[in-house]
Amino acid sequence: MIKSILGTSAIALVAALPALAQEVDRTDWPTSFTVGTASQGGTFFVYGSGYANLISEELGVTGGAEVTGGPMQNMALVHTGEAAMGMTTMGPAQVSIQGKSPLAPGLEMTNVCAHFPMYETPFHAVALSSSGITALSEIPAGSRIGFGPAGSTGDTYFPEMMTALGIEYERRNGGWNDLGGQLQDGLIDVIGFAAGVPIPQVAELEASNDVNIIEFTAEEQALMTSLFPVSNFDIPAGTYASLTEPARAVSMWNFAIVNCDLPESFVYEATRVIMEDNARMMQIHSSAATTVFENWDKNTVIPWHPGAARWFTENGATISADMIK
After folding, report:
1. What is the separation of C-alpha 55 from the centre of its chain, rounded to a whole number of angstroms?
2. Is the pTM higher than 0.85?
């Protein structure tokens, strides 16, 4: 079952040199680790590859990024232990813990623990300017919309959002790079992105095409927040070259996750490395601006790993006992 979940995910491992500032108990530490990310061309892959390398460099444990189908698959991989770490979004995390994941129906993924807050995932659409589509309500019936990899956050929620807005569409799946190529070639009409901004693939599209960043209206935002676990979000002007004013969107929080069986001291040190060097995290991806202590309380779904909880409580967080594994 695990192999069928993983598929043919690629694993890129990097060797690291020990860089611990002080001696810690390394009893039972893993000799290597992988971080489940998502498809190449998306924010998860860039962010996850970067923080895997950072932990490797600082703790001297070989680690790297693993290309996956995104948040839903990462929950499965981390639960089974096939990936020690990963990245997920609150919506997919909630349904996976409840045993409602489409990848493994009935399997309650309760061996997944929270590691640290990442950033919000805005939902917004992109079309070529030549399509004439400037608003969600202008998407023609039967349009081919790419929602990202099957089982990803975008694929889980964006189609339901389109249906709620009365938009008829043909569903297409694929990695962000692949969907970007299909949009340029006229094989699809719109991409519904759900990823931390700026999304690398959107910037690549802008480099050779005129594109429209399609925002939600205030009324559409209100409907989305009433139906789904999302909140209002403004994509700042200048995030993309073609975005001259803030764009309304809706968003969902992302958290890094770890297998609950990892040693407490290892997860504590990995948490310290990430949370105490935001400048390095910002070099990895600008979305890490929200990877800060103050956002620990954005997790209301995933129980904390004891090692991560120890770092956050030492720094002032108040985590209830029932939210620590």
Report:
1. 18
2. no
CA-to-CA separations, 55 to 17, 20, 173, 186, 268, in angstroms, rounded: 10, 10, 32, 41, 11
Whether pLDDT at 176 is above 50: yes
Q: What is the pLDDT of residues 153-173, one digit of tens each?
A: 889 899 999 999 999 999 999
Peptide bond into 306 cis (omega under 30): no
CATH architecture group of domain 2-119+255-323:
3-Layer(aba) Sandwich (3.40)
Asked if residues 192 and 146 have their Cβ atoms less than 8 Å apart, the reply is yes
Same fold, 2-119+255-323 and 121-251: yes
Write the CB contacts of 42 (distance below 8 Å, at least 6 apart in sequence).
Answer: 70, 148, 175, 176, 195, 199, 200, 201
Contact indicator for 77, 68 with CB cutoff of 8 Å: yes
The candidate with the shortest Cα–Cα distance to 115, out of 266, 5, 280, is: 266
Tokens of 315: 């720094």
Q: What is the mean pLDDT of residues 108-113?
A: 98
